[in-house]
Specification:
By secondary structure, this protein is of the alpha/beta class. It contains eleven helices and ten strands. The protein starts with a helix and ends in a 15-residue tail after the last strand.
């Protein structure tokens, strides 16, 4: 063989070797070392990568795109017998100083749980997801860049961590996939509610699959429970102008209940806890109020149901009160009493009830520590141990809370 032919074979061999190395490091090594996208249901066994993620390739050598991995050594903690929670936005979660203020409240008081936005109504995700089916949608905003480490910090303090996922009110996904979104009968354009936000059709099963995948991966990042919000049809805006691409002519309660069952069958049956936010009026109303939500249906398929019994959200005259906002104990007490009665009659565990309570000012009524505490008392007076405080601005009335034991 001539030296020239031998040299050509050496070049071919080296090129083949380099190609093999590129393919191995990009396609096969990540699959061998990163965790599965499926849910790990054994909360006692940490989800681990085979080797520390910092030793894995961080970019695709072919395209230069960044490669993402699930956190190593992920663990979960069990649900407290009495969940006492506060809500944290993704923006507060992204700022170490801001979120430390909320963690400080948890450290000093009876609070033992934090609910953190994973997907809010903007449709943007709070951190970089790994699942390629989610990543291809471009919805990862990566606001909370250290979510894995933050959850580990919370777990080290024995704080239960819940992922909040807004479902059908989703501005981004509606614009990206107008085929799944509610339309205006008048204009044919995407429909908007009173807040000018787009909605997805609750009957779209592709949307069901998308949010289920988000919930599954949130659990694999370390969240202990997945909380689903906006699991209904719109309640405000030009409702008669809505065209439903997936559920036209169908009973709304049937559609929404089918979605609840889908979440149960695809997440809850694996052992992962799921909860659903529902209108406060569902505790006393027996119709779906045009939004598809029914108390017993929700309680059947979720591990926990979270009625949003904010007194300021009730219309004047509700339950006989001219200004419900100024009657925090009475509104919550009546709502919880009826919810307990109805679940008991249906043979469902009443401890599934875990209301969202008001810790914010609205309609000219300033909520004091006494008013916040009155709602907690009303919850407890009905034999319920768990509750969650909502403040969109993440400003909480610490003086309304008992000191940590």
């Amino acid at each position: 063989m001539s030296k020239k032919r031998f040299s050509n074979w050496k070049i071919i061999f080296l090129l083949a070797l380099v190609s093999f190395a590129v393919i191995f490091f990009y396609f096969f090594l990540p699959k061998l070392t990163q965790v599965s996208y499926s849910i790990n249901t054994d909360t006692k066994t940490p989800i681990e990568t085979a080797i520390p993620t910092e030793t894995l390739p961080t970019t695709n050598p072919l395209t230069g795109e960044k490669i993402y991995y699930l956190p190593a050594n992920v663990t979960h903690i069990p649900t407290p017998s009495a969940v006492k929670a506060i809500y944290m936005t993704k923006w507060v979660g992204s700022n170490a100083k801001s979120r430390e203020k909320l963690v400080g409240i948890i450290d000093r008081t009876e609070i033992n749980t934090v609910v953190i936005d994973v997907k809010d109504s903007s449709g943007k995700l709070s951190f970089e997801f790994v699942n390629p089916e989610i990543r291809k949608e471009g919805s990862s905003q990566n606001t909370i860049k250290d979510i894995g480490d933050f959850i580990k910090e919370l777990h080290s303090k024995n704080i239960y961590v819940i992922a909040r996922v807004a479902v059908f009110q989703d501005a981004y996904f509606a614009e990206r996939h107008p085929e799944y979104a509610l339309k205006s009968k008048t204009t044919g354009e995407l429909w908007k509610d009173a807040a000018k936000i787009h909605w997805l059709d609750a009957g779209s099963q592709d949307v069901w699959k998308y949010v289920t995948a988000i919930g599954a991966e949130a659990y694999n990042f370390g969240f202990d429970e997945i909380n689903f919000d906006y699991i209904r049809y719109p309640s405000d805006g030009a409702l008669k102008d809505i065209k439903y691409p997936a559920s036209e002519g169908m009973a709304k309660s049937d559609v929404v209940t089918s979605f609840y069952k889908y979440l149960h069958d695809n997440i809850a049956t694996t052992g992962v806890k799921i909860s659903g936010d529902i209108f406060g009026l569902t505790t006393t109303e027996t119709t779906d109020m045009g939004i598809g939500q029914l108390l017993i249906s929700a309680a059947t398929y979720f591990d926990y149901i979270d009625p949003m019994v904010y007194p300021s959200h009730y219309a004047p005259g509700t339950y006989g009160y001219k200004n419900p906002s100024t009657h925090p104990y009475e509104i919550v007490n009546f709502s919880m009493k009826k919810a307990v009665e109805r679940l008991t009659a249906a043979g469902i565990d009443t401890q599934k009830i875990r209301p969202w309570l008001q810790d914010f000012n609205l309609l000219g009524v300033k909520y004091t520590a006494e008013m916040v505490r009155a709602q907690i008392k009303a919850t407890n007076d009905n034999g319920l141990q768990s509750w969650m405080l909502w403040s969109a601005g993440n400003v909480y009335t610490e003086s309304a809370l008992e000191k940590a034991q």
